[in-house]
Write the C-alpha cells for this entry.
Amino acid sequence: MIISNDSELRSFIPNVMSTVEGESSLYEKVKPYMGLVESSLSDIFIGPEMLANPQSMSEVLRNAASVYVANEAFRMAVPSLDLVLTPNGFGIVNNQNVVPASKERIDRLMFSLAQLRDKAASTMMIALADIDGYAETPQGKWFSASLFLPLADHLSGLADPEKPMWDEFLRVRNLAEPLENEAADEFISPELMARLRVAPFEKGSVYAPLASRVRRIIARAIPGAPLNKRALTDLVNFIRENPDKYPEWKNSKTAELFSPPIFENDKKSSGYWF
C-alpha cells in the first residue's frame, strides 16, 4: 500500500491520540478504507501500474497521493471510529477524560478532510499532466475528454465553496459537456476541440491559450446562459487568421460553414441570370 505503517499514516492525520497497549492501531482501523481509496485512486488518477510501484512516482505525486488516501480513508472511517458492537447493539466509546464531539464539529471535520483530499487531487492532476504519455492512459483519456480539470483556476466562479471541490468538478464537467460539443460543432470543430482538451497534458502547447479562451466562454454559459456566439465567432476569425497554428480547424467540416461555395453565373446553367 502507498501508506505502509501507522507512523506514516499519523504524519498525515494530526491530533490523533497514541494507541494504548491492547488497542488496535489507527492504521489497523483505517486500513480497509485505505484499500478502497487506493482502488479509486488507481481507477481515476494513476492507474494500477504506477500504484503498484510508488517509488516510480515523483516526490510531489507520491506525497499528494498519500495525502489523498489518508484523508479520504479517515473521512470514510470517522462515522464508525467511536462505535463498538456489543451483544446488545452499538454503543459509543466513552472515556471520562474525553468529551464526545458535537455533530457540528464532526461535520466540520468531514468537510475539512474532503477539502484536503481535493487539494491533493489537484496537486496530483498537475503532476500527472507533466508525465509524458499520461494523456494516452485510460485515466488521462477521461480527464482529457473535457476542457475542465479539477483545478482551482478551471472551476473559479463555478464551484460552490460550501461543497467538496471534487463533487463540484463533476457537476461542472457534466454541465460543460453539451456546451463544449455545441461550440465544437458550430464553431471550433470537433477536431480542434479534441486538441484543446489535451493541451494541459502537452508541455508548452501552443493550443493552451486558445483552450483557456474557449473554456472561459463555456464557463460563462454554465449557469444557464446561452453560448456567446459573438465571442465564438471572434475566435473563429482568430483561428482563420492563423491557419498554420490550427490545421485541425482548417481541414474540418466545421470550417466549411464559414467558407460557403461561391455561386458562379454560367450561360449553360438552367439558373443563369441576365
